[in-house]
Design a protein that fits this description.
mainly beta, Immunoglobulin-like, 11-stranded antiparallel beta sheet, 4-stranded antiparallel beta sheet, 1 helix, 18 strands, 55% strand, globular
């Protein structure tokens, strides 16, 4: 027993410890699905929909008459953070409260995959507060249509989901500093990793930096970046990580 405890302690020290929960893939309608993956600091959402369509997903809502319930919409104008106010069309939270940071938007054979992340608790009363507690029920309302977001007609429904599938992950942990950053950001590689592809996206999903880095070349000049929040994707041959960066 002592040997096992020692080995686990060494692994956790070397690689980092993470407890995560996930809804898994929630099928909403034919060709439409959503998934929420939650770790100790942020939630990552994966939306799948036809390339010519829009998809709206309301979190923890019982119907359109609900008020101040979180809604995420993807349409021809991009990803939008909205909320239900008891009316037919959920208004946008406004440009200053777009809390989701899109990190990927890809199309393949008529299917679009959108990946975005945000804090578990944004501080906005109209945003759903995610938890890492296993077996948390998360009811979803959904609606679909073509082109720009609008009236859904009969293309709507509800889906029951649960933040479950609790996992314990032992993965090499990258560190970034200083954060917030002003002029230069350093990426500290774990000892087990020698190379990674680093991509940084703005809050609007625009790629602002991309490079293959190693332990000896791991600094990023941020002096020309606009003030705001950025999302860094770190990809290796074996795993990927996402980091949130604040540029002052």
């Amino acid at each position: 027993m002592k040997k096992i405890t020692l080995i686990l302690s060494l692994l956790i020290s070397a690689y980092g410890f993470a407890q995560n929960v996930s809804t898994g893939v929630v099928t909403l309608a034919s060709g439409y699905s959503v998934q929420f993956d939650v770790n100790s600091t942020e939630v990552t959402m994966t939306m799948i929909l036809p390339t010519s369509a829009w998809l709206a997903v309301a979190l923890d809502a019982t119907g359109m008459a609900s008020t101040n319930k979180d809604v995420v919409v993807y349409d021809s104008s991009g990803l939008q953070d909205r909320f239900l106010n008891g009316q037919t069309t959920p208004p946008s939270d406004g440009a200053s409260n777009q809390d989701w940071t899109q990190s990927s938007n890809t199309e393949s054979n008529g299917v679009r995959t959108v990946i975005a992340s945000r804090d578990l608790n944004t501080g906005d009363a109209k945003d759903y507060v995610f938890t890492t507690t296993n077996n948390t029920a998360l009811g979803l309302l959904w609606a679909t249509g073509n082109g720009a977001f609008g009236y859904h007609g009969a293309n709507k429904g509800s889906a029951a989901s649960t933040l479950g599938s609790e996992t314990i992950a032992l993965i090499p942990e990258f560190n970034i500093y200083p954060n917030p950053v002003t002029n230069e950001l350093s990426v500290q590689f774990p000892a087990a990793v020698t190379q990674a592809t680093i991509s940084v996206y703005s809050v609007l999903g625009t790629l602002v930096y991309s490079s293959t880095m190693d332990q000896w070349n791991s600094k990023i000049n941020t002096s020309d970046w606009n003030t705001g929040v950025y999302l860094m994707n770190i990809n290796t041959a074996d795993f990927s990580q996402t980091k949130r960066i604040i540029k002052q």
